[in-house]
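Worked example 4.2. Below are the chains of a multi-component assembly; read each line carefully before continuing.
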Amino acid sequence: MTVRQLPLPDLVRECVRLGVPGVGLWREPVREYGVEAAAALVRDAGLAVTTLCRGGFFTTDGWEAENRAAIEEAAALGTDTLILVSGGLPPGSRDLPAARARIADAIGALAPYARAHGVRLAIEPLHPMYAADRCAISTLDQALAVAELFPPDEVGVVVDTYHLWWDDRAPAAVSRAGAAARIHSVQLADWTTPLPAGVLTGRGQLGTGAIDFSAWCALVADAGYDGPIEVELFNDELWARDGVEVLEETAEAFLRV
Amino acid sequence: MTVRQLPLPDLVRECVRLGVPGVGLWREPVREYGVEAAAALVRDAGLAVTTLCRGGFFTTDGWEAENRAAIEEAAALGTDTLILVSGGLPPGSRDLPAARARIADAIGALAPYARAHGVRLAIEPLHPMYAADRCAISTLDQALAVAELFPPDEVGVVVDTYHLWWDDRAPAAVSRAGAAARIHSVQLADWTTPLPAGVLTGRGQLGTGAIDFSAWCALVADAGYDGPIEVELFNDELWARDGVEVLEETAEAFLRV
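Applying the procedure described above to all two chains together yields the following structure tokens:
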């Protein structure tokens, strides 16, 4: 998504050229290219699919069929991790605890299907500014409370610096999640202000904002996480530029921070 | 601030006409009108000044003189409560814990001066989306942790629904704050999406968004709070309209929710 302007074959070619060993994919471009064709493309290049984004939106109609399809796509792509963005308040509701309960129920309903496909469900807490319309799971503590209802190889959490950086309770939650082998994905994006309208597409290039990435990377490493670290930027300015250039710049920024 | 388009004399006249018994004032319009003149205007109308907004911004240069002036103005206006918006990261810093420590130190330095003027300092936790650039105190738990370093009649907290509605830990913190007589102010605004660019001026009219106000009002009442409840909307659309009409509408919405 960081370089969504790049067609899938270009993305794969440039990752290989730059020595980027894996890539997190999003469902829409994968389905557009064809799931089997995308799987072959990435596999033949020797690239790992680190995660598939995303399942979730459990508070909207049709969630079950959508999420079963996402699990099948993850399995076909050869990734063991499906990222979940859980959904906000149902239309007309003002009841966040009820939305959270509904999310936990939906994950419980999906977990056996995911396990049967060799796919782990990774609950991503989103920044509290998305609680109403995108994800009622706003903190790592909340995500862990749901994940802990299930075995760690079935349901875990995503540690994304953009969503968690402000939270003084997050470091302890990272340690707890790591000790239980529940950190299924780590994602980096920087916090820059002012936020754009709609607050979706203002994630900053690494090193340009408020987040101390060396502290966050040390935190997840100390918690025992040794899996891939993704860079996930939604940024109108980066999307408007040449994708290869942005990918090179992002790889450099990653090493620098 | 909800009707900042109304000059102070119009605001006072309309509050009296509508039976609104008190008003929270902001420093800028008060200073423009003259502090003593504003104090006389409100006093002669029989209106209470519920709070003065705002002191704080402790992570920027010149905070001490600014905050002493704000304390003096609060005393002159006859309000016992100065709202504090504590400030974000200092320029170039990525260290939120250091910013929070600096805020606690600054409040400690100010508290005796405030007490001598009969003014309580009320720490307002702001939504986490303001942590970098406006207020490093993002949760009621964090605000309480600072307030609890001081006596409750010196330093307390603000419960503002806009900033806290998403937080599953806030209800317990409200109860704890109420039991210790540390709730110094309660403010209402609704959460509506999409957020506008800069995320400052999108606070919704009561009843138009995601927040359950009857639950929040019951929560503060159950915690023992029986002080004034302010409505504080920053909203470009409301500011562009006739101020008297917006004030009437807000008073109606307040009673309705």
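Take a moment to check your reading of the output against the notes. Strands of chain A lie at 22-26, 48-56, 81-85, 120-123, 155-160, 183-188, 190-191, 203-204, 229-231. Residues 125 and 139 of chain A are 5 Å apart (CA to CA).
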